[in-house]
Amino acid sequence: MNRGFSRTTGGKPLSSLNIRRQRAERRFRRIGLFGVGLALASVLFLLGTIFSSGYSAFWRLHFAVDIDFDPVLMNVSSDPSLEELRDVNYLSLFRKNLERSYPEVKDRSERRKLAQMFSESVPDVLESLVISNPSLVGSKQRIWVLSSSSAEMIYKGAAPRDIEEKRRVLTDQQLTWLDQWHGENLTRTRFNFRFFTSGPSRSPELAGLGGAIVGSALTLLVTLLISFPMGVAAAIYLEEYAPKNRVSEIIEVNINNLAAVPSIIFGLLGLAVLLNVFGLPRGTPLVGGIVLSLMTLPTIIIASRAALKAVPPSIRDGALAMGASPMQTIFHHVLPLAMPGILTGSIIGLAQALGETAPLLMIGMFAFVADTPSGILDQASSLPVQIYLWAESSERGYVELTAAAIMIILVFLVFMNLLAVFLRKKFERRW
Amino acid sequence: MTIYLLAAILLVSLSGFYIGKNRASALVVGARIQSLPQYHGLRIALWCGLPALFLLGLWVVLEPFVIQSLVRNSLPPEFFNLSGDEAILAMMEISNLAQGIVGTQSGLPYAEQAASLLISMNQLSDYAMIVVVSVVSLSALVVAQSKVTADFPALESVEKAFNVFIFLSSAVAVLTTVAIVLSLLFESFKFFEQVPLHEFLFGLKWNPQIAIRADQGASTGAFGAVPVFSGTLLIAFVAILVAGPIGLASAVYFAEYANPRVRDVAKPTLELLAGIPTVVYGFFAALTVAPLVRELGLSLGLAVEARSALAAGIVMGIMIIPFISSLADDVITAVPQSLREGSYAMGATQSETIKYVIFPAALPGIVGAFLLAISRAIGETMIVAMAAGLNANLTANPLENVTTVTVQIVVALIGDQEFDDPKTLSAFALGLILFFMTLILNVFALMIVKRYREQYE
């Protein structure tokens, strides 16, 4: 580090020129440090923004409501059959119970505002409760149900509270209810399991990532199955077999160029060729996986070639001298030694594929898919596309969901990269 | 259906493997065997599997075309009097009827009959496929296993198949490039049939709205792509303005000043930025940076639009910092130590050495790094799709909103796609230009970097 002039002044007094030069030296060094600092600050700022706006999505606000499962209100006999219970209008059951609990709310629109404090899912919750336990009919229960997204935003402080009524997501009356319930211990927050299991929804408080995670996993599986064997095979050909001629050169130049083609172009390719020419089903993990594997292929090939190149020629010579065929040499001796490097490169390639959004949008993986896909031929969503769709929704409740989904995808990416680092550190051999 | 057939082929291959292996193992007792038993097994498995799989694939791809044209030929002459669109509708109705989807009955007299023909043909084709594929697979099994003898070179056959496989795998890269170019060209030609090339390249107005009904006049929209390109370049320019100095400064610091421990921590942290999905940057730009830029601008008395080019450019700049910093770091480290030592020996300070010796020496590499970063910025989609504007706006003011090539591709293809209308097709024309722009930048950059590397090796 102790290079150059700056530290070698000894005890001699400095001329004014040298003082200026020393200042310039320090200034230059500070500029470098400033650049690094600015870059690191933007990493921190970005991650900080995501975490601070996303962590709250892992908790959901619940309200307690007293529900009287009165057969008269439900319009059923006192010992109803399951059929009867299925036909009950649970929305009206819920509304009538609210009227009983809050008799002071008379005005029609006020009543609607009261009901809007709760999630739209409340009638479904009541239904499944009654169906699973018909003996509830005739009893009074205190039930914890999800709040509406707007009430939750105010409660968590994600939406501004101290502004005029018109611009706030809750009315003054609703705000009073919220405070009143909070004072009476009728509110609680619980871990948001639904976020990991359910699919997208039009109500933010019900939306989850389950379907997108499964869609991403299926897409990545297809990508892995196609790009890993083909990438390794191509690397073996180019590194071990390819004669030094025009064809090999063209292939090599092509791979380097493909690595730099914008991802959206791969999406156009998928749309024009896979969907329009081959007629593969739109928006499925199969098509998404094929497109992403074409995109990942160059990464895997380049990494695998580097790993193969690092295996010393003496290993090959030894195997060939013992009478192994070229293929046997590769499979029994070269590949096992190159595997850590190949796996590291492949995992990094797959991590890139996991975060890729644009090509999936092009091949139609943006539809609202409520069900969790069960195979590679089902319409599916994927994590980054879900993030995009949520980010584009105007409702405030989706902001924290988007940020939380980003946290999930970052966790997956960190995990994959750590795995790659671990493989490299653990199995890498140097000759 | 296809799935079961696939499973059956796999089953035949698997049994072929074991039959071959066992027969070859039995040979070992008596004689010296040319290939190991498992290669005999593998050879038979390949023979059972590959031809049958190829046939199956071909069948699945070609079947709809063949059947469709057969059904079409069976239709009565009045069908052929229909106009293009009506004919497509009629064929759709027939296939809907065949699939049991009832709804749009336009009352074509021959639809019922054609639908039942379609059904029976589909069935026939399915049966034929099962028979042909299984006959191919099984007869391959019989023929291949008869060749298991002590001196049969099974390993060589397997090796040949392997060689073909690895060659084809590496050829996929070439095929992909060819497919990209061809598909983009093909769709672009369709676009340029409707919109003249010079209008696309030099027109100043981009407004790809199309008439919903045919009688809404010839309002086919305007397809002058100049504002789209200028927007792309403006945002890329802002990005380079942000990433260039920061990336270069950190590269210099890492390469020349930082002690190894700082470098080991800070460099991977910085490279984290390269691993973050671009959709995350898009969210960051839309949620945080754009409002920040807007507020800052307003406090300075500047009118900043909500989706300003500046905000998108800044975030894109943050995204490409690690590209510039790690590429520049590489080229700076690659400058031979002797140049530095010569400079120090002449009494230059470290910063003087960097400025007057290392930079000029590393300049080609740094230019290459910048070109790669620009190409990256031009092709980036999600940040601009989430944070840049949708309306084409011919301006050089980064405070206004502009649109980019990638945004227009996304806009054209999300939603209804109709492959005969110029709005959808414009995406491919834009894609074609984008592909060649990035290709030229990359080839040029790689050339510079390569030549530079050779200079010091």
CATH architectural label of the largest domain in chain A: Orthogonal Bundle
Distance between the termini of chain A: 29 Å
Computed Rg of chain B: 32 Å
CATH-defined fold name of the largest domain in chain B? MetI-like fold
Could you explain the architecture of this structure?
The complex is a heterodimer of chains A (431) and B (457). Chain A is built from 18 helices and 3 strands. Chain A is mainly α and 431 residues long. Chain A has 2 domains: 58-191, no CATH class; 210-427, MetI-like fold (Orthogonal Bundle). In chain A, strands 2-1-3 form a 3-stranded antiparallel β-sheet, covered by helices on one side. By secondary structure, chain B is mainly α. Chain B has 2 domains: 2-152, no CATH class; 222-456, Orthogonal Bundle (MetI-like fold), CATH 1.10.3720.10. In chain B, 77% of the residues lie in helices and 1% in strands. Chain B has helices at 2-30, 37-74, 77-80, 84-98, 111-145, 154-194, 197-202, 226-257, 260-275, 278-299, 309-334, 337-345, 350-379, 382-387, 405-413, 422-456, and strands spanning 206-207, 222-223. Chain B is flat and about 85 Å long. The model of chain B is unreliable at 213-218 (pLDDT under 50). Chains A and B meet through helix 1, helix 10, helix 11, helix 12 and helix 13 of A and helix 6, helix 8, helix 9, helix 10 and helix 11 of B.
